[in-house]
Amino acid sequence: MPRFLTAGESHGKCLITIIEGFPAGLRLDLQFINQELKRRQQGYGRGERMKIEHDEVEVLSGVRLGRTTGAPITFLIENKDFPSWEEIMSLEERKVEPVIVPRPGHADLGGYLKYGLEDLRDVIERASARETAARVAVGAVAKLLLREFNIDIFSFTIAIGKTRVKWEGDWESIKEKAELSPLRCPEVSGEEKMKEEIDEAREKGDSLGGIFQVVAIGVPPGLGSYVQWDRRLDARLAYAIMSIPAVKGVEIGEGFTSASLPGSAVQDEILYDRKEGFFRLTNRAGGIEGGVSNGEAIIIRGAVKPVPTLSKPLRSVHLRTKQSLPAHKERADVCVVPSAGVIAEAMTAWVIASAFLEKFGVDSLEDIKESYTTYLERLKRM
Ligand SMILES: Cc1cc2nc3c(=O)[nH]c(=O)nc-3n(C[C@H](O)[C@H](O)[C@H](O)COP(=O)(O)O)c2cc1C
């Protein structure tokens, strides 16, 4: 099983990630990886921090002469903001002003109780979504692998606050429109309303959530399995998407809508054509049945809650005096839905790439290509 770990604090020197179990022979396009990092940083509603950071990876291991070697791949992403935090983030013992009033909706109180800490800064620094920059770098490597097999993953915003948009057109045009939009929204008039809602929230010292959709096209049938709970592709995707900070709901295909419909309006009928093979006219299942990909586009939606740090803070409690006080506040985003979509692409790419490597081999890209071709030939005969 391929795996990865990340390390690093939000205002520490850097973020680090190690990817293990990825095949040799993959061309590592650094420009693409850095472009993915840039996509995560954009979005109407992000805060001041993103104006400071210009994320780029430095490759420390696992790559030689432009290609992966099969050894662990290590990336380093510098935190450009570190110099202004050097004292607070000091490795040496010293006195600093502690953060002592936890923010509702953040890891602050849970982390304080769990680890017996004295300063909430220790929780804040690692619970911060800054860590997701490392995940996007990992996802970019997964995307590079999937590209070799014509699998493409993209995302777009479908709701922010009370505004929900409907979209039209094929996947390619939706993807293009989303890439051009500061909210990653494929529908222009809806986007204007979303911006107004964000501006209003900012003025009120509040924050806003929403919904993103991730689409994976070109995924072959047969990834994941029904034979054990933890092999189910839908379960693995839900886990990965739910692990993104602020994501509070995940659905695959028609998800929650299907709960109120009769079975005949939910399942996708199976048809056959000599040239096409098996095919469907609908994709309500979102490309996964019984935990196995069925060859249709994989469709995942994630509900993002409004970010917890508010410039007009909610009530909280001073951890030592137990006095009721407004929660701690610091520089924060107002709305992170578009960025969450990009992070969700990365997590989706990772899960699909992992399932792909499990099925077709993990050591050498050349061997994987051979195995994949043989599989596609077998499918054609069925
Ligand atoms: C890209 C991104 C940026 C975020 N920025 C902030 C932020 O500036 N301030 C904040 O309070 N929360 C922010 N969050 C959300 C928190 O990280 C998250 O709500 C917190 O870690 C608690 O986790 P939970 O909401 O999953 O329970 C962000 C989330 C994402 C995905």
Secondary structure elements and pairings:
Layout: E1 3-7, E2 14-20, H1 30-41, H2 49-52, E3 57-61, E4 63-64, E5 67-68, E6 73-78, H3 108-115, H4 121-127, H5 132-147, E7 152-160, E8 163-164, H6 171-180, H7 188-203, E9 210-217, H8 233-242, E10 247-252, H9 255-258, E11 271-273, E12 277-279, E13 288-289, E14 292-293, E15 298-304, E16 315-317, E17 324-326, H10 337-360, H11 365-381
Antiparallel strand pairs: 1-2, 2-6, 3-6, 4-5, 7-8, 7-9, 9-15, 10-15, 11-12, 13-14, 16-17
Helix pairs in contact: 1-5, 1-10, 5-10, 8-10
The structure holds flavin mononucleotide (FMN).
Flavin mononucleotide binds next to helix 10.
How would you explain this protein's 3D organization?
- The structure is a single chain.
- With 382 residues, this protein is an alpha+beta fold.
- The protein has one domain: Chorismate synthase, AroC fold, CATH 3.60.150.
- 34% of the residues lie in helices and 20% in strands.
- The chain contains eleven helices and 17 strands.
- The protein has a five-stranded antiparallel beta sheet. Strands 1-2-6-3 form a four-stranded antiparallel beta sheet, with helices on one face. The chain has a two-stranded antiparallel sheet with strand order 4-5.
- Helix 1 runs antiparallel to helix 10 (337-360), helix 5 (132-147) crosses helix 10 (337-360) and helix 8 packs antiparallel against helix 10.
- It is globular.
- The mean pLDDT is 95.
- The structure holds flavin mononucleotide.
- The site of flavin mononucleotide has 21 residues, from helix 10.
